[in-house]
Design brief:
With 142 residues, the protein is mainly beta. The strands form three sheets. Strands 3-4-9-8 form a four-stranded antiparallel sheet, with no helix packed on it. Strands 7-6-5-10 form a four-stranded antiparallel sheet, covered by helices on one side. The radius of gyration is 15 Å and the shape is globular.
Length: 142
C-alpha cells in the first residue's frame, strides 16, 4: 500500500510534512481494527500517555483532539519493520490504523504536545482544576 498523502513544507529548507486531517481519515477509513497498549500516568500537573509504536517515523503519526477524546492515526508502509520478539505490534498489523484515547474531563488538550523517540509516543496533556471544553485541536509530535 503506498502512502498517497500530499506533503507540504512548513519552513523553507526544512522537510516537515503536514498531514491534512481529512486525507488522514480517508486513508484510514474502513481499515481493520487494531489497538495498541497504552500506559496512562496521572502526575500533579499533567496526564502522561505512553504508547509503544515501533517501526514508524515521527512524520507518519497524526494526533488531534476533540475535547477530551484524542485520536491517534498511524500511516506507515513498514509498521512491522524492526520488530522485536514480544513487541506490542504484531506482524499482521494494518499499514494504517487509528486509535482513540479518552482522557479525564480536566485534561486541557489545547496545550498538549507529543514526542516520539525510541519507538514510544509520549503524549503530555496539562491538567486543570475544572473540566475544560476545548474545541478541535491538532497535537504536534516532536
Amino acid at each position: 500500500m503506498s502512502n498517497t498523502l500530499a506533503y507540504t513544507s512548513a519552513y523553507p529548507g526544512n522537510y516537515a510534512p503536514i498531514l491534512q486531517e481529512d486525507e488522514v481519515k480517508q486513508q484510514c477509513f474502513n481499515k481493520k481494527s487494531f489497538y495498541l497498549p497504552i500506559r496512562f500516568t496521572e502526575l500533579s500537573t499533567l496526564f502522561k500517555v505512553e504508547i509503544p509504536i515501533p517501526g514508524v517515523k515521527r512524520d507518519e503519526l497524526y494526533l488531534c483532539a476533540d475535547e477530551n477524546d484524542v485520536s491517534l492515526y498511524v500511516l506507515s508502509n513498514n509498521i512491522s519493520a524492526n520488530q522485536q520478539p514480544g513487541a506490542a505490534i504484531p506482524n499482521n498489523a494494518p499499514a494504517c490504523f487509528d486509535q482513540h484515547i479518552l482522557l479525564p474531563e480536566n485534561a486541557d488538550t489545547e496545550f498538549s504536545y507529543a514526542e516520539y523517540y525510541g519507538g514510544v509516543l509520549r503524549l503530555h496533556v496539562p491538567k486543570t482544576k475544572y473540566p475544560v471544553k476545548n474545541t478541535h485541536a491538532r497535537i504536534v509530535v516532536y
